[in-house]
Design a protein that fits this description.
The chain is an alpha+beta fold and 297 residues long. The protein has helices spanning 62-73, 89-92, 95-102, 133-136, 203-208, 224-235, 253-264, 266-269, and strands at residues 5-6, 12-13, 21-25, 28-33, 36-42, 51-54, 81-83, 106-108, 152-154, 167-170, 179-183, 188-192, 212-213, 241-244, 249-251, 283-285, 288-291. α6 packs antiparallel against α7 (253-264). The longest helix has 12 residues, at 62-73. The radius of gyration is 18 Å and the shape is globular. The relative contact order is 0.17.
Length: 297
């Protein structure tokens, strides 16, 4: 049975503003919007290199995202780009509206492009993994495609565009082209959904946001072998701070200990006992899915 790794409350980075925005450090903040986080990366000072938005929330959140960005960076300051960890519905819901408003480039891994340029839909979510209401309802979640091809670009050679000092890490498993962002100088990791810090399968846990280290959301992970490799790659970085796509940001030795436990015991902690993709992963290439296993039963 998939589980979680509990983390002491001191590891969680809690909201420092009444509006719910979490400032992790001077050039990094995140905001929870419904069931997912958006990340604001870059300087608040004008003429200091600009900023980027990482991920774009759920459908209907565009106005709130713009409001949060204006509060942090000032009215009229557009981002240099919108960077995507992956293209699931809860990370691209406001993407097209924001792109039309800001007219800035959108970057994603080349294996995510088919789901963002109208060519392909993701494999179906798997409500049979169990764990709570969010997993049960996953059969109804939108899986694309959307089409933002007017603004869409692949990431260039492992770099994070317009953000010097940050490295792009391909961390597949949750999706084929999932990426994370790593700053070796500050040891800050923006992990997307490669692993998360709340039990995303449970509606109650999503509401309460208890600090726990989990594997990627079970109902939308289609390649558990690659997901395991990605978590072990990220744990080996020994991050000081992690910001994930779901749940609170965390820092410090308790977080690292929990992340190493997840990496070490990934199959027991993260992988569901049964499910469509547990022993038969979906496969994909630059055109989209090439194999989707049949639904069991």
């Amino acid at each position: 049975m998939a589980a979680q790794v509990n983390v002491g409350g001191d590891a969680a980075i809690t909201p420092d503003k009444s509006d719910g925005t979490n400032e992790v450090m001077a050039n990094l903040a995140f905001r929870r919007l419904a069931i997912a986080n958006v990340v604001l990366l870059g300087s608040k000072e004008p003429d200091a290199g600009g900023w980027v938005l990482i991920d774009a929330g759920v459908l209907g959140s565009a106005n709130l995202i713009k409001e949060v960005c204006e509060q942090r960076f000032g009215a009229g300051r557009r981002p240099n780009a919108i960077l995507l960890t992956h293209g699931h519905f809860d990370h691209v819901g406001a993407l097209e509206e924001l792109a039309q408003e800001w007219d800035v480039p959108i970057y994603a891994h080349e294996l995510e492009l088919p789901y963002l340029d109208g060519r392909a839909s993701y494999p179906p979510p798997d409500p049979t993994v169990g764990g709570g209401m969010m997993a049960t309802l996953s059969r109804f979640y939108p899986r694309g495609p959307i089409d933002v091809s007017k603004w869409l670009h692949p990431y260039p050679n492992g770099r994070v565009p317009t953000m010097p000092g940050w490295k792009l890490l391909h961390t597949p498993g949750h999706t084929p082209g999932h990426v994370s962002f790593w700053n070796p100088q500050t040891r800050v990791l923006i992990a997307g959904d490669a692993f998360i810090t709340t039990n995303q399968e449970s509606a109650f846990a999503v509401l309460m946001q208890s600090p726990e280290i989990h594997g990627p959301p079970m109902y939308y992970t289609t390649d558990w072998e690659n997901a395991r490799v990605s978590v072990r790659k990220l744990a080996a970085l020994e991050p000081e701070v992690v910001v994930t796509g779901h749940g609170p940001a965390m820092r410090g030795p308790e977080m690292r200990e929990a992340l190493h436990k997840l990496a070490r015991d990934f199959d027991a902690i993260a992988v569901p006992d049964e499910g469509r993709y547990v022993n038969d992963p979906a496969r994909a290439d630059e055109t989209g899915p090439t194999y989707v296993p049949p639904m069991k039963g």
